[in-house]
Specification:
Number of helices: 22
Bound molecules: heme C
Helix content: 25-40%
Distance between the termini: 62 Å
Length: 502
């Protein structure tokens, strides 16, 4: 009888779990909205107010008065230092140096006043080549930087545009000085000299990457290491094993209900439970296998889902728990505990069971209660299954369309083209991820290893609002999209990497 009950309990739990998860996912998808981030990039491009990420560029004005900064006054002074910071949005793709080296985009040394598409050897798009009779004067640059895709349709610069007019002027003024024949803002007719703040006057205010010399910055990066989280202390492992053994021993006499309502399912115990303890009763969770064939006879090998085509996907079809805890990729990159997803609910929120077919879903004489599904998708799944955050990156299009721009030869991970040094040097230092292994995999080649957790297996139309951990030389201006974001990972999981060289 116990066994039968257990079996039904199990089936009910499963059915309820499935329903609740679907409901939760639907609800989460409907309600967890990041600020204006649900619009696809094409839609964004026609929104007329200044775009959030562009506010990084705004320097002083932005910190003084955010609202005011949205309406730049025409005769406002030119702030060349702010222009240099705005360059932070271009540097991932462009160099602006006299050595003539081009990156993803052409070298822009001396671009102000130069002919369009004039860098020899650079593989321009037909659209840009067709415009090569024109000159990059202030007006053309301004129009191009506002909305690259509209100013020169069909060009290949996958950059969303800088909507703030003052930021563009500052940037153009700065670029005009990066030239064999530098031009001042007055030469360009940009502003009255009295208002000019030059880079030289305010070197220390420039907290951005450009505040460092190349050597200083290299040294910073050299000193920085991605670390896997510290191993669990041996003593803790021994204790967990002992508690798990105690549970196993108690099972011989434990009543099913006592097991089902075991305190480990609820806070506070659920928040500190070890995998060993959960597995003392739920060992089957790691050995479940999906069917070898569907009921209609389709073999599992013939029903590969789109997310199973990523470079990192290996082996046969496996269960959900296997893919998060046991697959090679999971073991390399993640360190998930049962309690990370199953945080436990308040037992007072248990709901009367709803057995399909039972009249009006009412409980029988002796009410049975189902354990509520205790996985919160918006704080767990969304982290690794959210949409690709293209907008925050100033990129246009899906990664499938634009990755070639960043992976111009085999073996390059296009995410690291930008994220190797320019952005977010500090990331993944949380106990549920293996930051060191993630970087090693990323460096070994395919951007699928990064993309997989950041859009490649997206169940959601919205990206996860990650904590914005600072990186060496990060600009101290906060872009609009990041206002209100935490500046450090959740303290329950965060750890500080210790560089063995120190
Ligand atoms: C995602 C990469 C990327 C980013 C970010 C980017 N660009 Fe570009 N840029 C390109 C590419 C690629 C081209 C060549 C486009 C073509 O051939 O259609 C280009 C072309 C240009 C050109 C024309 C150069 C010429 O020789 O005619 C200018 C000017 C320019 N970019 C300025 C900027 C500025 C200023 C920024 C920052 C606000 C920026 N770009 C950000 C990739 C980028
Ligand atoms: C003493 C044995 C025991 C321990 C320890 C235990 N469970 Fe359970 N758990 C059960 C029983 C019995 C059920 C009822 C369902 C069933 O029979 O499968 C259950 C149900 C569940 C369910 C499904 C029901 C639901 O919707 O909530 C989850 C999820 C779960 N446990 C997770 C955990 C986690 C995570 C841990 C460790 C923190 C844990 N359990 C520890 C015995 C245990
Ligand atoms: C990545 C998040 C995640 C992790 C980590 C995780 N689970 Fe789950 N678990 C879920 C989700 C989501 C479901 C419901 C989906 C389903 O029905 O398979 C579930 C379902 C369950 C169930 C009930 C349904 C079933 O398939 O039997 C049990 C029991 C369970 N988990 C136990 C565990 C234990 C024990 C661990 C640690 C060894 C663990 N889980 C780790 C997310 C997770
Ligand atoms: C910390 C990151 C992380 C979290 C949190 C996470 N996943 Fe995943 N998920 C992954 C990775 C990585 C894979 C691919 C594993 C592999 O290829 O072996 C994956 C694979 C999957 C798959 C595909 C399984 C298959 O057979 O191909 C599904 C479905 C899935 N996750 C759903 C979820 C749900 C639902 C949640 C929340 C309960 C969740 N994930 C939480 C990282 C995560
Ligand atoms: C053109 C350069 C560029 C490329 C290529 C790029 N990123 Fe980014 N990414 C950025 C910038 C800029 C930011 C915003 C940094 C900031 O200000 O916090 C960012 C932010 C992010 C964030 C944090 C988003 C948030 O909302 O907190 C994630 C995650 C991310 N990138 C992942 C990736 C992955 C994965 C790839 C490859 C598939 C990739 N990036 C490719 C420039 C790039
Ligand atoms: C196993 C899944 C997984 C993989 C693989 C992964 N990430 Fe992440 N990434 C995450 C999660 C989860 C977070 C949020 C961590 C936290 O809580 O701070 C994150 C955060 C980030 C952030 C922004 C948050 C910050 O700390 O500032 C960036 C940028 C980022 N990842 C880029 C990358 C790049 C580049 C790669 C490839 C080298 C990569 N990720 C691979 C799961 C992953």
């Amino acid at each position: 009888m116990k066994r039968v009950e257990a079996f039904f309990g199990y089936v009910i739990a499963l059915a309820f779990v499935a329903t609740a998860i679907v409901a939760a996912v639907v609800v989460a998808t409907l309600f967890i909205k990041g600020p204006a981030r649900q619009l696809p990039p094409e839609t964004i491009a026609v929104v007329s107010e200044p775009q959030p990420e562009q506010e990084v560029a705004e320097a002083h004005a932005a910190s003084e008065d955010r609202a005011g900064a949205r309406e730049p006054v025409d005769d406002a002074g030119i702030d060349v230092a702010a222009g240099e910071r705005a360059w932070g949005q271009c540097r991932a793709c462009h160099a602006i140096a006299p050595d003539g080296r081009s990156g993803i985009g052409p070298n822009l040394w001396g671009i102000v006043g130069a002919q369009v598409a004039a860098i020899e050897g650079f593989n321009y798009s037909d659209a840009l080549r067709a415009a090569d009779g024109q000159v990059w004067d202030v007006a053309l640059l301004d129009a191009f930087l506002t909305r690259p895709a509209e100013a020169i349709p069909g060009n290949r610069m996958t950059y969303n545009g800088m909507r703030d007019a003052a930021a563009r002027r500052n940037l153009i003024a700065w670029m005009a000085q990066r030239s064999d024949t530098p031009q001042s803002p007055e030469d360009l007719g940009l502003a009255a000299a009295a208002n000019i703040v030059t880079t030289e006057d305010t070197p220390s205010e420039t907290a951005g990457v450009d505040a460092f010399s190349e050597e200083e910055y290299e040294a910073l990066l050299e000193a920085f290491r991605w670390m896997n989280p510290p191993a669990r202390p041996a003593a803790e492992a021994v204790e967990a094993r002992a508690r798990a053994d105690a549970i196993t021993a108690a099972l011989a006499t434990m009543d099913y209900e006592a097991a089902r309502f075991h305190p480990l399912h609820y806070p506070a115990e659920s928040l500190t439970a070890s995998n060993e303890e959960c597995l003392a009763c739920h060992a089957e969770i790691l050995s479940h296998r999906p069917r070898a064939a569907s009921l209609a006879g389709v073999p599992d090998t013939a029903s590969i889902a789109w997310y199973q085509t990523l470079d990192t996907y290996a082996g046969a079809q496996e269960s959900f728990h296997h893919r998060h805890m046991l697959s090679d990729f999971a073991q390399a990159t993640m360190n998930l505990q049962c309690r990370f997803c199953h945080q436990g609910t308040d037992p007072r929120e248990e709901s009367p069971d709803m057995i399909v077919g039972r009249e009006n879903h009412t409980a029988p004489e002796v009410p049975e209660f189902t354990l509520r599904k205790v996985v919160n998708p918006s704080t767990t799944c969304l982290m690794c299954h959210g949409a690709f955050p293209a907008e925050e990156m100033g990129l246009v299009g899906s990664w499938h369309e634009i990755r070639e721009d960043f992976e111009w030869e085999p073996g390059i991970n296009g995410c690291l083209t930008c994220h190797e040094d320019a952005f977010r040097t500090n990331r993944h230092h949380v106990t549920f991820l293996n930051a060191g292994n993630i970087e090693a995999l990323g460096r070994a080649g395919s951007s699928d290893s990064c993309y997989g957790c950041h859009g490649g297996r997206a169940w959601y139309m919205i990206p996860y609002p990650y904590a914005r951990n600072p990186w060496p030389g990060m600009d101290d201006e906060v872009p609009d999209w990041a206002i209100g974001r935490p500046t450090a990972s959740d303290p329950d999981y965060a750890f500080t990497p210790v560089n063995p060289a120190d």
